[in-house]
Amino acid sequence: MSIIYPNMLTPDSTFAITAPSSGVPDSLHDQLLKAKNQLEKLAGRVAIGDTVWTQQASRSSSAEKRAAELMTFMTDPNIDAIMPPWGGELLVQVLPKLDWEKLAVSKPTWLIGYSDTSTLLCSYTLQTNIASAHGTNFFDLHMEALDETTTQWHKLLSAPSRKHFMQHASSMYQSSWDKLFAQKNAAGFDLDSKTEWKSTTGTTISFTGRLIGGCLNTLTSIAGTKYAPIKKWSDSFAENTIIYLEWADWGTAEAYRNLWHLKEHGWFNRASGVLFGRPARSTPSQDYTDKQMIHEFADEIGLPIIYDADIGHLPPQLTIINGALATVSYRDGKGTLTYLE
Q: Would you tell me how many other CB atoms lie within 10 Å of the CB of residue 31?
């Protein structure tokens, strides 16, 4: 089987902004308009849906309204890409209300984002075999001086071919996701800490496979359900997979329990290796640290793990295309993601 890629982005592409999880409160609407202006420099048109402007009870609106707006945009042949403003908590409510059979035969559309948005991205790729892009959220685009790692999202999705396209580890990262909101008119991320990728092998390592993954906090909810047919999907390809994950707001033991949950549902059975992002707001469980847990989990699944990579809630982050064949390499604290198709 071959992965299905949406068309490359062009200066005439139309973006739709919708909120299948959390919307944006009134106090941040100015940043939304700035993000729209910034995106319009790259695209022909940016349409913002009604769900984006509201937020109540940990969601933008009712599941029915969120699903209806998302379906409208995803089945509109004039829409080339969809970016939620950001993630949230309750995207799972939308999944049962989508017409997945219709989505599978509609024009492929780029879905772009991370956090709870990855619940939709991962399910979309696993159920339809259409590629999706785990990367920056729409809200992040309100800043005018985004770093090179972040801006790769548009270069990658605009490339006529992704073959041999390389993304490298950042030099610096932002140590707190909340710093983005501490500045009313931030020019870019506050990159205050040195980036250092790590490996459970402690040596140079690389592995190749089809990328699939996202935010562990939310993917755990769909693992083992019909919305995440990981075995059927991975078995349809000759190549192995690369599972990539990141998480936030957990103690080490809770992160382990959720990784164990994915393991029991076969997520690592066809993997050649695993890529973990930097945990955000993570705390040790007594003296049980993330580093110890990650090394023990690597032994448990019998796979190398590259960790503290540029993925997730401590920006910047790589743009990772679900379904794409790629090689991840690590050496001396640095890493590279190279697309092979």
A: 21
